[in-house]
Design a protein that fits this description.
42% of the residues lie in helices and 22% in strands. It has 183 residues and is of the alpha/beta class. It has a five-stranded parallel sheet with strand order 2-1-3-6-7, with helices on both faces. The chain has a two-stranded antiparallel sheet with strand order 4-5. Strand 6, helix 5 (121-130) and strand 7 form a beta-alpha-beta unit. Helix 3 crosses helix 4 (85-94). The longest helix is centred in the C-terminal third of the chain and has 22 residues, at 161-182. This is NADPH-dependent FMN reductase.
C-alpha cells in the first residue's frame, strides 16, 4: 500500500508534519512518502498568471503524487482559522489542472493539530466542507488539541493515551477500507 502523507504547512518545525508522520508509522507494510510543502513552492495563484504561463510543474508533480498513492493522510496547519497560505496555494494550482479533481477520490484521513484547545478544528471544518467538492473521499477525521501537552517529540508519538487510541482506531478503519479496495 502506498501512502501519501501531507502536512499542510511549510514550517521547518511543523507539528502537523510530526502528527502525520506518526500516523503514517502506524500503518504496517506501507510505502510512505511524506510531502514537504516547500517542495511545491510556486507563485501565488492568479488567473492572469495561469492564462499567461499555464499551471506550474510543481502543481502537476503534487497531483502525480496523489495519483500513485492508495491512501492519503493529511494533517492541516491552521492559520487564522483556515489553511496555511503554502497549502492553499498548492491546492489552488492543483485544482486548475484540466479535467482533474484535486484528491482524485483517494480515501483520506483528514487531521489537524494545534497548540490550543481546538486542535485545528477550524481548518478541519473548512476542509471537510471543501475537499469533497474537489474529489476528497474523507473516511474519517482526527484532531489533537494542546499538541505540546499531548505529543512526545522525543518518542515521536502521541503521549495522551486516549487520543493515541482514537488515532489508532481511525488508522485501523482507513487501512481496512484500503484492503477492501485492493480486492
Amino acid at each position: 500500500m502506498k501512502i501519501l502523507a501531507v502536512a499542510g504547512s511549510n514550517s521547518d518545525t511543523s507539528i502537523n508534519k510530526l502528527l502525520v508522520s506518526y500516523a503514517a508509522s502506524l500503518i504496517e507494510n506501507a510505502e510512505v512518502e511524506i510531502v514537504d510543502m516547500n517542495d511545491f513552492e510556486m507563485p501565488i495563484y492568479k488567473h492572469q498568471r495561469e492564462v499567461e504561463s499555464g499551471v506550474p510543474q510543481e502543481a502537476k508533480n503534487f497531483a502525480e503524487k496523489i495519483d500513485v498513492a492508495d491512501l492519503l493522510l493529511i494533517s492541516l496547519s491552521e492559520h487564522n482559522g483556515t489553511y496555511s497560505t503554502a497549502f492553499k496555494n498548492v491546492f489552488d494550482w492543483t485544482s486548475r489542472i484540466k479535467d482533474r479533481a484535486v484528491w482524485n477520490e483517494k480515501p483520506m484521513l483528514l487531521m489537524a493539530t494545534a497548540p490550543g484547545a481546538r486542535g485545528g478544528l477550524g481548518v478541519l471544518e473548512a476542509a471537510e466542507k471543501r475537499f469533497p467538492l474537489h474529489g476528497g473521499n474523507i473516511v474519517d477525521t482526527f484532531t489533537l488539541p494542546f499538541f505540546n501537552d499531548n505529543f512526545d517529540k522525543e518518542a515521536n508519538k502521541i503521549s495522551n493515551e486516549e487520543k493515541d487510541s482514537e488515532l489508532k482506531e481511525k488508522i485501523q478503519k482507513i487501512s481496512a477500507i484500503e484492503s477492501i479496495l485492493e480486492k
